[in-house]
Every structure is written in C-alpha cells, then in structure tokens.
C-alpha cells in the first residue's frame, strides 16, 4: 500500500540499509548525487531507531521492504526483522511525497493521489556520478501537471532541496530516455487530464537501481512508494 | 591574505584533507551537521584535482594551509605539497564568502570587506552532532549588519543552504556562548557602524575545531578565511 497522500504535512523517507563495509561508498554516492539522494539521517551500524521517528523501528515501520542479494530482489516482506544484520547501516533519504502537501496548498493537483495510485517512477538514461563500487542510473518520479501550473510546481519544489528540489525535466520523456510514460518501471501508471504534461523529479528509488547494477552482497530497502513516514514536519525541509 | 571580497561571483570553499580511515567518520559528520559542513565535493583518496576547479591542485591553490597532527597545529605553509600523503581524502565544504556577492547586490554592506579585513569567526558553545570518532563545537562567522537589513540578509542567505544558508543567530552573542564579539577566535576583529548588529552564520572552520577536539593523527586544512576559490558561479548554490 503506497504512502502517497498519507500523513499530509509529515516528511516521508526512502530507506536503504547496507553493510558497514559499503557504507562509505554509499555515503559518498549520496554526496555526489544530491538531487536523487538527499540524506536526511544516517544511523550507526546496527542501530534501528532514527531521530526522525523515535518511536519506530526502521525494520518494521515502512509498509513493505525489499531484500537484495548480489543485486537481485529476493524477498518483499512487510517486516524486515528476520533479515536484519548487526552490520547494517541505515540511511533515510528524502522523498518527493514530502513536497506534495506544498504542491496541493499551491493549487497543483496530484493525479496519482486523486486516483488512489502510487506515483509513477522510471529508470532514466542519466548515469549518476559513481562513488567507489557504486554506480547506476538515476530514477525519477513523474507527475501529470496542468501545463499552466508547471512553473508554480517548479517554484514550490525548488525550495525543498532535501526532498529532491526542482524538477529534472518536464514535457518530453525522451530527453530522459523514457520510452513510454504510461508504463512505469516502479509504481503505478497514472491517467492524465487534458492539458496535463509530465513533470519529472529525481527519485530516492535511485539507490535501488544502483543496487541492481552494482550488486553489493546484501541490502534492505523500502518498497517503492511504500515509504518510511517520519515525525518531521515537511516544513523542516523547506528553505527560505 | 584573506580571500574575502576576492573573486566576486565565484564560489569559495573550505578544505579539509583527512586520512582515508577517517573519511567515513568525517563524511558522516558533515551529513549530521549540514549547517556548518555543507559538502560541495569529495575527492577520491590521493586525488588532488576537484571538478569544481579543474585547472588547480588542491595542495597549492588556497593562499595558505594548516597542517594538523593529533589535534595540534604544527605548520602553516603556503604550499601543502610537502605534507601530502596518498591516503588523504580531500573534502571541499561550502563557505559563506560565496553568499557575499548576493548580500552586496541586495544592498547589505560588508564591513569586513570595506575594512579590508578577514571575517570574524568564533567557537560557540553549540556542540555538533558527533559521528564516529569526530566531535566538537560549531564555529560561526560574524558580520555586522544594519539592524534594518538583518531580515534581508536572512532571506538572501536562506536560499543558499550549500554555503551555510540562513543565520544561526543575530543580536546577542551570549546565546552562542560568545563572550566578546570584538575578540574573534579566527580572522580579524571588525569595527561596526552605528546601528549595526552582529549576525552569525555557521562556518566551515568547524572541522578545524573538531580536529582540535577529536585529534585524528593527521589532517591538512586551509587557513581560516584563506579559501579555495572555485570556478563555480555562486548562483549554482542558490535554490529557488
């Protein structure tokens, strides 16, 4: 069940837990790719509680998890406790669901929420800047937005760089190497209204595309669109 | 010689090079303390050229360097090449000099530049969030600003979070544990004009205060106020 449209006003986060001997590469990767991977919190190895949600366990609080072995998705449990290892370092990465309340408040409709669907996500042909053993393509989320409101959507989200900030593109999906905007790689297809154009934001599912390409021996992530909802107000991630 | 007021329109950076086995702790420290330590670039171990200034060597481009051994300042050379080690990982961290052109353009005078001095910097009693073996207090830079322009200075700098963003305080230095605003810990004392109030921004000299407290065996930094001037336009670090 997607958390899109849930917990309005609260920041949501992508989750990735990776063995400690891969943590430097991942942390460096996030620094070199701040648009898809804005880090909100990094736990110590083995730690299972984040300051962003003190009453929750990072292994159980997201609706669904993904277990990765050597770049292969091997399980999708609702509870990741059985897969936990004490050498795992958990990263919480900003999620674009966090700016959706601000978009609604600015008058920008959210088609996926209206249609009770997950947001559409696509693997692009933009290669991230590599870091150590980690490399892979950028993933984007896509929202159908009335053409007259694209500029407002840009302005609203640009002020929230920790949750992906301004769009990386709008209009032509092919400029990102996306062939069919109605067939997402993750999440659901969403139906546009007349006059809508597709707008693309860097997405925190990018680390999962990186896992597939870089094949570290083990990792746990959330399932796309089924986020770790924090206690932090979304306003905390707005600048200016 | 300070780089304050030099190279208007170009981003300036703090520099710290630390042995590879301390790099994860430092990278984690920067993530946990984004206000004083917004990372602009991280080089690979042994690498000496940053993408932010491709034609320069990070060991010679700043006007002056500091050599640190076990938390003690042992030398202040103009050229750090003789102290270089191939296991050093160089970090470039945002510098508040980068938003000074924007302040001037917004009508905010810069007393230290008018007086051809380095900016004043102070060690505060605010403890940074620790990361692994690294801990220490936050350092701030201080600018005298006409009271009527403090709000404008806040607005202008809030939009540049990668170069320290909005002030961490204004008015009363004691709230930061600063006893005498005319006796800085780094840089020069600056003379206020009538009606000026002190305004404080988180400062990229914080890693040097952390070196003093945490005592890693070796590090190279720039000398405070004698920055690594990049080729990046300051506008690149403005959001919105």
TrEMBL record, chains A, B:
Gene3D superfamilies: PSTPO5379-like (3.40.1640.10), PSTPO5379-like domain (3.30.2040.10). Its EC number is 4.2.1.-. It holds the Pfam family D-Glu_cyclase. InterPro entries: D-Glu_cyclase, Putative_hydro-lyase, UPF0317. The keyword Ribonucleoprotein does not apply. It comes from the Bacteria. Keywords: Lyase. One of its GO terms (molecular function) is lyase activity. It is an enzyme of class 4 (lyase). NCBIfam families: PRK05463.1. Belongs to the D-glutamate cyclase family. This is Putative hydro-lyase SAMN05216188_103301. It comes from Lentzea xinjiangensis.
């Amino acid at each position: 069940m997607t958390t899109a449209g849930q917990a309005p006003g609260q920041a949501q986060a992508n989750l990735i837990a990776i063995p400690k001997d891969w943590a430097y590469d991942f942390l460096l990767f996030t620094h070199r790719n701040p648009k898809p991977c804005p880090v909100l919190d990094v736990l110590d190895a083995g730690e299972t509680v984040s300051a962003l949600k003190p009453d929750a366990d990072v292994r159980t609080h997201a609706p669904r998890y993904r277990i990765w072995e050597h770049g292969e998705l091997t399980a999708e449990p609702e509870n990741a406790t059985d897969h936990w290892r004490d050498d795992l370092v958990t990263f919480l990465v900003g999620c674009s669901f966090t700016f959706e309340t601000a978009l609604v408040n600015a008058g920008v409709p959210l088609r996926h929420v209206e249609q009770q669907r997950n947001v559409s996500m696509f693997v692009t042909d933009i290669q991230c800047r590599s870091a150590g053993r980690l490399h892979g393509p950028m993933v984007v989320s896509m929202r159908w937005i009335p053409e007259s409101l694209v500029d407002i959507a840009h302005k609203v989200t640009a002020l929230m760089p920790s949750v992906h900030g301004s769009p990386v593109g709008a209009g032509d999906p092919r400029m990102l190497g996306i062939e069919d905007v109605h067939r997402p790689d993750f999440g659901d297809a969403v139906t546009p209204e007349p006059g809508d154009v597709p707008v693309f934001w860097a997405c925190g599912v990018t680390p999962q595309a990186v896992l597939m390409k870089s094949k570290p021996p083990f990792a746990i992530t959330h399932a796309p669109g089924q986020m770790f909802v924090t206690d932090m107000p979304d306003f905390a991630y707005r600048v200016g």
